[in-house]
């Protein structure tokens, strides 16, 4: 079968590979749609640990075409979305229920072959059934949405609170929707006019940057969601929080890079800074929200490509009007 | 009466002042014991906002000797401890129940005359009755303990968790006791051998600094309580937290001073950093804990002085074996 | 001035009374709109403790016309809504921040003269300023909304959860709106076709009763909000909760009346039952939600009457198409 | 090998059975100590669903003697304690992280062969490694302790709170220890003088029943832990809670049996009633608490028997001085 594989740092190609076979407890899935994520680009550049050669793609949906030994939870033809993060169940973190912090975490599409291929095999319990009415296309957004849902849980937004989202990529625009859904009055700071329009269609106010956000909400936001992963937004996030407010960081900054923050300011205004990593126990809820229409994937999918276009798209910097690109079978 | 007053930045003296009279809703208290706090030294140096001339002293206990108009909650002779923080009740923060963030907060002993005098008048509802069996001397520790209790609430320690306390002053040693009481396995990092001994008597393990703490607990602490208020411990606090752990800052660093932190490290280990400011709704609980003996004030009171010694003591740097100094009537 | 006063149990009349004068710390308010609440009927029948003679009315808005001594937070002409519950600030509950459980709670319109009169005096900090753009009429709904907001805080609804509201009175219809705002998928059970229509306009699905709710959601609701205050809905509430779900009771059943519940069922499904009483620290948020339009008072106000009609309206049973009746100046 | 097996409702015998072999992903454990639990007696009487024939015993420790295919987390000779509850990982509850509510939960010693035999095979990730210094004997108490820890998490005890435990069996005496560890002031109500003594040695006050508890604490307990599983204690639990307090039910009452409670009383005092079922994500913490000595198993093990004595012991009613009986290899 054809698969888009990372061969070594800097080398990504679509080539023929043997078809995977499901191990005991696994399902074999024919991939329908697979999203390209910033992490894929980080993997290509070697900025994120992984052991090539490996088929990338960790945000995908598809149909079950074969069952490994002992799988009774699924049937051929089932429509599923992959939750790529496989926790071991037995390490200290897993035993505490902190599965996203599993010491032996393996991610489909990072630590083992993923969804940028025609077929992908992975544990049945990570193949979540699509709720009735959810398209395979929208289901490809479930993984990033689940990460945002985890952040929203940590943010603990109360109806009526002011929520400021920094960064208008997929993560930012999903957070905009979730914060609205949680009853927040939402503002997005993004440099891209195109993304501003999408956010406004989704019910948010928009500003160009932190300075404009400060002008619009001089008392700050009850909750700031950092979704850009750059030093500037990270530094601003707690400063833009209101007295008693909180900032949640989702954006991934480079390892080792530091940010200067002022503890006095945080203490006297009793601001907290939290972080949200991956999608523990949120993937099923993400699928339900996409199925009900409470969160909309449609406006975020700005382009669909074939597998053969993937190497070129992965190597280029996404344009300012690009949000989520799907590889469609 | 005699009172220790801040006359202007840098000038503190004990002198004769008119006796205060209780306004409607206030009680007049004959001060028994009043603790000296780092904040008093900050006020003296002008590092903390206040409007001199004013009688300092915000940690004190005493006996009610007169009642303002309309006070029915207290009687002459009642033994009370002062909760110095008077929230307005009507600002945005107060309306949300975040009284420690009150926009019009006035503190007895900072914004109005406090407990370094023979008598002090303040609102009756801030004069908390001493539980049976609690000495006026121990009750003078209720205010700092209440601040620590607020931090422990925010820390949300579960029985069996590892708790690392940075800084062995009064705040650190009270946090040691509270973290033990909450079921934590507690380690204190302090440079002072004298303070190590106190902490060990209180049931904690001790180390000299962050490096030793890291060696002792290589996986980090579930909760780190920063109680020193210096850049080094602030920087270390989240780094010393275990995967999924949290750091709580109580220490007050100078306004404007920054600390360099690494967001990547926080995100991938899902560490959060919280702050705890003042004593909202915790002063009554603090008194109860002192009364039951669950928290011990005794080992922390290293010296008692008369009012006349106060100017000298305030102006000197406390020695390494000093913890809490009380001004005793 | 004219005022609607409870003279003794069973006797309510509109008559001339002396104009109140604001005590120190109080404001005098010219009442604009005052809502009639089920509690007013309970007071009339003697089913709820109160010390007549007293002017009833605890849900009201108006304009400040005079200031008591020492009031600097308000000015003549300010538009305000009354938070009727005055906590003492000094009892054990108040010291813990549980102000709704204050041991000396006094409610305007219950324990002291309220808003069914031309003028009403009460503490300035209980006179909340109306946000810009909020009408005095809508502001009269702030008190019941604040009670519902407290319940929603306790319910801790996550986006996407199923929420079932039992009872379609004012409380039920406000809870419908708040649960929707919190991201819930909401169903209201009400016997009244008129109330069903209002709820549907507000975005909820509707059913006639618990049996229909069970048929519609066989796995139950993540959260059930009991807003009727009768034994049948109380009994059903935890049974209608899904595995791991929770029921929150707002409805006030008669003192002494019991309900039979099955602990085994709760335990094996890990269902909890919580209660929500009054409006601690939520009145300001309620006003903000009304002002932003996030919660709509309009569809719930089914009738406006003059003060003189009040005795008749209070003594009759409200019809099935009645939701909130306002007394308008 | 010899094993104590439930053959059908009412029939339990120790007999020879084939030695189990570990499936892929499983470990084979030589059982060292296995606790007898009230549930075992319920299973014998048919009061709890299970499919005989099956080897009972769900609270046990032992040594790994063989590894199924693909097990790399364990080695021969490892000392482990079994967490008997195997969640499927893929059902709606598991996907939400509510593993104790798994729709396909299978318990070792209930739904499949357990620890009342010489050997037992079960999934490696349910074989938790014993921390250094923990004896196999004490480790046999980890499962009930983990259930209590879950309840204590739900109870959310703050240092200094009053905690009342109803019922002095193993669950009650473990809750006593955990509530003390969480900083609570603890009282146990038990009819047995023998159990009173144990509780007093563990640092609790004791009373004979609810009436005495009410007399001792007229304002009630901040938290009541119901650990008896009978109607009387269930009915009393929320009544014995203080204003704003909470009751947590751990005791298992018979299915279908109801209790009469008064909603008005709960609402006006804002009392909540929660339930705690099984041991989700708490077994590892339970082992750590036993290892550190923070919780003591010793005083609770009142008798050790051989496998051959098991049928007789299981069929008799435990005496008033019996707490936990272990079957020791
Ligand atoms: N925590 C988690 O579990 C998790 C999961 C998935 C992704 N992530 C991280 O979340 C972040 C966002 O992901 P994404 O997929 O949305 O990425 P994306 O589509 O590349 O969006 C990133 C956004 O960051 C903003 N940005 C980039 N550089 C900036 C700069 N110098 N100044 C200001 N803003 C800048 C841009 O916003 P504007 O163009 O709108 O200004 C851009 O749209 C990434 O760091 C990603 O690694 C985290
Ligand atoms: N958040 C609140 O509500 C609240 C309330 C009260 C006080 N505070 C703050 O909490 C902090 C502690 O108060 P305190 O009364 O305990 O003060 P303290 O008695 O002066 O103790 C401060 C401790 O910080 C440590 N420390 C000081 N300089 C250090 C350095 N350069 N490196 C490492 N450690 C250093 C010292 O610990 P060792 O000698 O043990 O090494 C010292 O004992 C202060 O910043 C105070 O302003 C906050
Ligand atoms: N917890 C608090 O802080 C708080 C605050 C305010 C009010 N309350 C209480 O909340 C409850 C609702 O208040 P409200 O102002 O909305 O009262 P309401 O307008 O009288 O509405 C009560 C609703 O309960 C339902 N109901 C009454 N009898 C019923 C029966 N036998 N079977 C089924 N449903 C029945 C009716 O719903 P349908 O006609 O739609 O079927 C009715 O609309 C009252 O008990 C009130 O005292 C509590
Ligand atoms: N929720 C969970 O996850 C979980 C886990 C394990 C067990 N459980 C349940 O927890 C309960 C306690 O378990 P256990 O192992 O401790 O049982 P146990 O050793 O049999 O103790 C039960 C205690 O309940 C008290 N009791 C029994 N009948 C009573 C009555 N009529 N009136 C007053 N008290 C009575 C007795 O206390 P005194 O003799 O001291 O008065 C007895 O010691 C059981 O229902 C069990 O099924 C629940
Ligand atoms: Zn793991
Ligand atoms: Zn205020
Ligand atoms: Zn009070
Ligand atoms: Zn499951």
TrEMBL record, chains A, B, C, D:
<dbReference type="InterPro" id="IPR050129">
    <property type="entry name" value="Zn_alcohol_dh"/>
</dbReference>
<dbReference type="InterPro" id="IPR013154">
    <property type="entry name" value="ADH-like_N"/>
</dbReference>
<keyword id="KW-0479">Metal-binding</keyword>
<dbReference type="Pfam" id="PF08240">
    <property type="entry name" value="ADH_N"/>
</dbReference>
<comment type="similarity">
    <text>Belongs to the zinc-containing alcohol dehydrogenase family.</text>
</comment>
<keyword id="KW-0560">Oxidoreductase</keyword>
<dbReference type="GO" id="GO:0008270">
    <property type="term" value="F:zinc ion binding"/>
</dbReference>
<dbReference type="InterPro" id="IPR013149">
    <property type="entry name" value="ADH-like_C"/>
</dbReference>
<feature type="domain" description="Enoyl reductase (ER)">
    <location>
        <begin position="5"/>
        <end position="327"/>
    </location>
</feature>
<keyword id="KW-0862">Zinc</keyword>
<dbReference type="InterPro" id="IPR002328">
    <property type="entry name" value="ADH_Zn_CS"/>
</dbReference>
<dbReference type="GO" id="GO:0003939">
    <property type="term" value="F:L-iditol 2-dehydrogenase (NAD+) activity"/>
</dbReference>
<protein>
    <submittedName>
        <fullName>Threonine dehydrogenase</fullName>
        <ecNumber>1.1.1.14</ecNumber>
    </submittedName>
</protein>
<dbReference type="InterPro" id="IPR036291">
    <property type="entry name" value="NAD(P)-bd_dom_sf"/>
</dbReference>
<dbReference type="InterPro" id="IPR020843">
    <property type="entry name" value="ER"/>
</dbReference>
<dbReference type="Pfam" id="PF00107">
    <property type="entry name" value="ADH_zinc_N"/>
</dbReference>
<dbReference type="InterPro" id="IPR011032">
    <property type="entry name" value="GroES-like_sf"/>
</dbReference>
